[in-house]
Write a structure and sequence with these properties.
8 strands, globular, about 260 residues, about 45% helix, eight-stranded parallel beta barrel, alpha/beta
Length: about 260
Amino acid sequence: MTVPEFMRAKSQGRKLSVLTAYDSLWATILEESGIDAILVGDTLGMVVQGKRTTLPVTLEQIIYHGEIVARCAPKTLVIVDLPFMSYQVSSRQAVRNAGRILKETGAQAVKLEGGINQSKTISRLADCDLSVMAHVGMRPQSVHKLGKMSAIQRDAKALLADAKAAEDSGAFSVVLELVPAEIAQEITDTLSIPTIGIGAGVGCDGQVLVTPDMFGLSGFQPKFVKKYVDLKKLAVEATKQYMTEVQEGQFPDEAHSHK
């Protein structure tokens, strides 16, 4: 999967599937599953580091995780988040840091949060042939301004303007987060680039979820997350069984011992 192929999926009427990964284990699993794209999101701050928000994630940390994922999923389109305050100061800062991400990770694209307010930066990145995905609606890096991570965005005019500005500036795709389905559908019908929804209804050109959420590992299950399997429950049960077998001398048995 390449950026041009990802973009063509919209005109072909093919829905795109995107999930997050932060390490070799999940990068390998997702690639073997045939996922269209992997997002190395700054959500690693919450699901990997245990922080309350995505804000503490650093450029060095995202590069570290991005390199692992890109190396272990070479056939998949890998997109890496630009962390908080790694692009907001200036478009020059954004180009430098995005370039560093692509150079040091081997990923194909970066993602930043914003629409109209980041249009100059998106344009500058595109001018430098750096593929960029935009992100409008609920923007986790703006959590303090918006008040909470679950703030649904309902201003249809502003959302459409943000998404259109991202497209006009050269973004190859745009994430729509926590946007009512009807508004997301209107945006999707208006844009020529793919829209990737998260909590934005079925009308988007594709969907993205945080992998630990959909596998029941994070304990985070808002309305828009479908838990496809409860791996946390299975892991706890397996761990308890292991502990019992160790305590009762059942493990290791003959089949798991060397002679």
